[in-house]
Amino acid sequence: MKYGKIVEGKFIDRPNRFIAHVEMQGRPETVHVKNTGRCRELLLSGAAVRLEVSDNPSRKTLYDLVAVYKENIGWINIDSQAPNKVVKEWLKKQDYDLVRPEYTYGNSRIDFYMEKGERKYLLEVKGCTLEIDGIGYFPDAPTERGVKHLRELTQAVEAGYTCMVAFVIQMQGITEVRPYTAMQPEFGVAWQQAVDAGVQMLFLPCLVGRDSLQIVE
């Protein structure tokens, strides 16, 4: 997955979920944050950040904050739209007969439906940006939607689907993701129930480039 023009700056603060102030060329600039999660351990005053220049000159904010530098880890992509994009690219390299995004199952919209011969698959994608002591964790904020998806996939296994959750690890050097039960115990319970039912948890490490994100095979 490639971005357009990338520029760098220093994070100042984040007044709300959608915007941040970034120092660029010695002056503050209001930018759009492409992640509504908390990212409190990442978006620290003075942290180096990367921004994509918008190709829409009429936008109120001309930059999208897409990555931040974390000591001892390196650059972390925090673009919440990136995981689905890189998984879509990755799935094209697999040997599925059919790949369909945004598939409605039950009361949820699952990210991908695939077929291989007579076998049917459901795949939900989650982006992981939270790292603690060399381990990735999800979620970094309570997510009722995430719990709902795990329960839908658990039921789908019983209906004959092969079900997976793909955790796109948006940083380098991390190869495992665990449920962050300290943030949301309910998610940990739903995770274990899903695993016990046969839902597969896929950990997909990424190569984080200056203007790109790619799943490492």
Q: Strand order, main sheet: write it out.
A: 7-8-9-12-14-15
Largest sheet: 6 strands, mixed
CATH class of the largest domain: Alpha Beta
Q: Would you tell me which CATH topology of the largest domain applies?
A: Trna Endonuclease, Chain: A, domain 1
Q: How many structural units, i.e. domains?
A: 2
What is the CA–CA distance across the termini? 14 Å
Helix proportion of residues, in percent? 10-25%
In brief, what are we looking at here?
This protein is α+β, with helices and mostly antiparallel strands and 217 residues long. It has helices spanning 82-92, 144-158, 185-197; strands spanning 6-13, 19-24, 27-33, 48-53, 63-70, 74-77, 98-105, 108-116, 119-128, 130-132, 135-138, 162-169, 177-179, 200-208, 213-215.
Features:
217 residues; Trna Endonuclease, Chain: A, domain 1; 2 domains; 3 helices; 44% strand
Task: Characterise the protein shown here.
By secondary structure, the protein is α+β, with helices and mostly antiparallel strands. The protein has two domains: 6-77, OB fold (Dihydrolipoamide Acetyltransferase, E2P) (Beta Barrel), CATH 2.40.50; 82-215, Trna Endonuclease, Chain: A, domain 1 (3-Layer(aba) Sandwich). The protein is 18% helix and 44% strand. It is built from three helices and 15 strands. It has helices at 82-92, 144-158, 185-197; strands at residues 6-13, 19-24, 27-33, 48-53, 63-70, 74-77, 98-105, 108-116, 119-128, 130-132, 135-138, 162-169, 177-179, 200-208, 213-215. The strands form three sheets. Strands 7-8-9-12-14-15 form a six-stranded mixed beta sheet, with helices on both faces. α2 packs parallel to α3. The longest helix has 15 residues, at 144-158. The protein is globular and about 60 Å long. The model has no long low-confidence stretch (mean pLDDT 95).
